[in-house]
């Protein structure tokens, strides 16, 4: 069964909570923390925890949020079965699914407008990988 994992550091905490609030009527999130915007934590700890869970099933999806989305993206993409996309527009989010079959979306909680983040997540969850010529390319990653 497909599971949706979400995690953030302190810099992404507020957006994580907003996303959970906005989508929880239709999505069941597995929230892996952090639990506060006040207590500084280290983003790789959350990226690694989430990616280990996402990698267990190819239907799984992950949402990672830190201040800029940079650190979470870097840490997540160290994992073999993870393709994490730093999403900042509807168009780049759509392409991350169509062409790259991204299984983790990363968002910059301190940089992206909340409503744009919601739109990106919606597109991420509802766009299918095109396959075809893109499949051999992602296999080469
Ligand atoms: C934390 O201050 C900040 O460095 C982190 O959230 C993230 O932006 C790192 O890439």
Give a summary of the structure in a few sentences.
The chain is an alpha/beta fold and 141 residues long.
Provide a descriptive summary of the structure in words:
With 141 residues, this protein is α/β, with parallel strands linked by helices. It has a single domain, classed as Sugar-phosphate isomerase, RpiB/LacA/LacB (Ribose 5-phosphate Isomerase B, Chain: A). 43% of the residues lie in helices and 16% in strands. It contains 6 helices and 5 strands; from the N terminus they run βαβαβαβαβαα. It has helices at residues 13-23, 43-54, 70-76, 90-98, 114-126, 133-140, and strands spanning 4-8, 29-31, 61-66, 84-86, 104-108. Strands 2-1-3-5-4 form a 5-stranded parallel beta sheet, sandwiched between helices. The radius of gyration is 14 Å and the shape is globular. The mean pLDDT is 98. It binds D-ribose.
């Amino acid at each position: 069964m497909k599971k949706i994992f979400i995690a953030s550091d302190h810099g992404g905490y507020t957006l994580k909570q907003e996303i959970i609030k906005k989508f929880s009527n239709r999505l069941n999130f597995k929230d892996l923390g952090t639990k506060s915007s006040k207590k500084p934590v280290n983003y790789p700890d959350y990226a690694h925890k989430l990616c280990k869970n996402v990698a267990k099933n190819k239907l799984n999806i992950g949402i990672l949020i830190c201040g800029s989305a940079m650190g979470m993206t870097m840490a997540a993409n160290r994992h073999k079965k993870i393709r994490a996309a730093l999403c900042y527009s509807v168009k780049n989010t759509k392409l991350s699914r169509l062409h790259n079959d991204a299984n983790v979306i990363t968002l910059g909680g301190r940089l992206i407008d909340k409503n744009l983040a919601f739109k990106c997540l919606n597109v991420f969850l509802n766009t299918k990988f095109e396959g075809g010529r893109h499949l051999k390319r992602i296999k080469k990653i």
